[in-house]
From TrEMBL:
<feature type="domain" description="CRISPR-associated protein Cas6-like N-terminal">
    <location>
        <begin position="1"/>
        <end position="63"/>
    </location>
</feature>
<dbReference type="Pfam" id="PF19308">
    <property type="entry name" value="CRISPR_Cas6_N"/>
</dbReference>
<protein>
    <recommendedName>
        <fullName>CRISPR-associated protein Cas6-like N-terminal domain-containing protein</fullName>
    </recommendedName>
</protein>
<dbReference type="InterPro" id="IPR045747">
    <property type="entry name" value="CRISPR-assoc_prot_Cas6_N_sf"/>
</dbReference>
<dbReference type="InterPro" id="IPR045648">
    <property type="entry name" value="CRISPR-assoc_Cas6-like_N"/>
</dbReference>
Amino acid sequence: MLYSVVVKLRAQVDATISPTRGYHAYALFLEMLRRGNEPVAQKLHDLEGPKPFTVSPLQGKFHRQHSGLGITAGEVYW
């Protein structure tokens, strides 16, 4: 059975974030899972090879900043 979960985040302030290839989203996913079921989160974290899930990098309206990606207060990112 396949599932898709989209987490929407609303920026509270203008800020600059570092561009990544999804590592922060991956860490957030495991942290959210850990809070609900720590043994499952640890098992998924420790798996070697392909994981039974995928996590996408943050999406939304960004603007270039000299040190990263600018996000705007009130905008929704997913």
